Amino acid sequence: MRTAVVVGGASGIGWASARALAADGYRVVVADLNGDAATARATELGDPHRGEVVDVADESSVATLFETIGACDAVVSCAGFSTFGPIVDLPVEQFRSVVDVCLTGAFIVAKYAGRHLVDGGSLVLISSLNARQPAIGMSAYCSAKAGLSMLTQVAALELAPRGIRVNAVAPGFVLTPLTEGAALVPGVVEEYVENTPLGRSGTPEDVAEAVLYLTKAAWLTGEVLDLNGGAHLKRYPDILGHLTKLGAP
Ligand code: NAP
């Protein structure tokens, strides 16, 4: 049976990806910062799936995860979070904490995935519309995701000799626990939808479908797939502008 590891798999896009991979016949390891949540998700999937704790910001934690699992066929790297604040006010530690998880964390996952994936395996990273579309107040997240898109291409070159394909999905706005706060600001989702040719935000299942495709696409590597209803053709919502209208500092 093929094994898939979904890092950041207990919530949102990662959880939808774990379900899609399980339905495709993989034995799924749901790995997340919250080990109890990961185990609960694996229990929902049933036998032979399992949950593991991992912190992508800690290399030894990621190394232990992959050593425990052994050889795997597909790895999906979903862990991520964002902070919000203008550059002139943003504490450096907040900038670093986002880069630590979204970029350095993805590098660490790629490092150990590269060691443990079987020849011909697949690594899928989750980038973002913000890798190419700047958003006021999101310097750390945008910078980290832009770096992640380039990391995808470098990893694709380095792992191609073993037939390992490395691709990324770059989703637009998807309602998950990560975006709950932004979605509560009146006008933000509306502005996203106004600037999205297909006229809606995404679902975790939309992204999971693309993740599954990337695990199968035998002649595709180094690709960063824009998945956003066409939003990359227009502009990102002005979250700070909407917050200012609310009277937020
Ligand atoms: P989510 O529901 O918050 O899921 C993210 C998961 O990553 C959570 O389970 C979280 O655990 C886990 N995580 C956070 N830090 C971690 C760490 N250091 N080590 C291991 N796991 C960690 O968010 P999501 O929206 O599904 O996001 C998944 C990915 O998609 C992220 O990389 C995000 O940047 C990207 N993305 C999301 C959107 C969107 O609109 N939602 C758009 C573009 C890209 P805790 O909950 O315990 O912290």
Q: How would you sum up this structure, described in words?
A:
With 249 residues, this protein is of the alpha/beta class. The protein has a single domain, classed as 3-Layer(aba) Sandwich (Rossmann fold). It has helices at 12-23, 35-45, 59-69, 92-116, 139-159, 180-184, 188-194, 204-216, 239-245; strands at 3-7, 27-32, 50-53, 72-77, 117-126, 165-171, 224-227. It has a seven-stranded parallel β-sheet with strand order 3-2-1-4-5-6-7, sandwiched between helices. α3 runs parallel beside α4. The chain is globular. The chain starts with a strand and ends with a helix. The mean pLDDT is 96. Bound molecules: NADP nicotinamide-adenine-dinucleotide phosphate. The site of NADP nicotinamide-adenine-dinucleotide phosphate has 28 residues, from α1 and α4.
Report a brief summary of the structure:
This protein is of the alpha/beta class and 249 residues long.
**Total of domains:** 1
Proportion of helical residues? 40-55%
Rg computed from alpha carbons, rounded to a whole number of angstroms: 18 Å
From the spread of the alpha carbons, the general shape counts as globular
Using the coordinates above, name the CATH class: Alpha Beta
Which molecules are bound in this entry? NADP nicotinamide-adenine-dinucleotide phosphate
Order of helices and strands: EHEHEHEHEHEHHHEH
CATH fold-level name = Rossmann fold
Major β-sheet annotation: 7 strands, parallel
- For the secondary structure, the number of strands is 7
**Physical arrangement of strands within the biggest beta sheet:** 3-2-1-4-5-6-7
Number of helices: 9
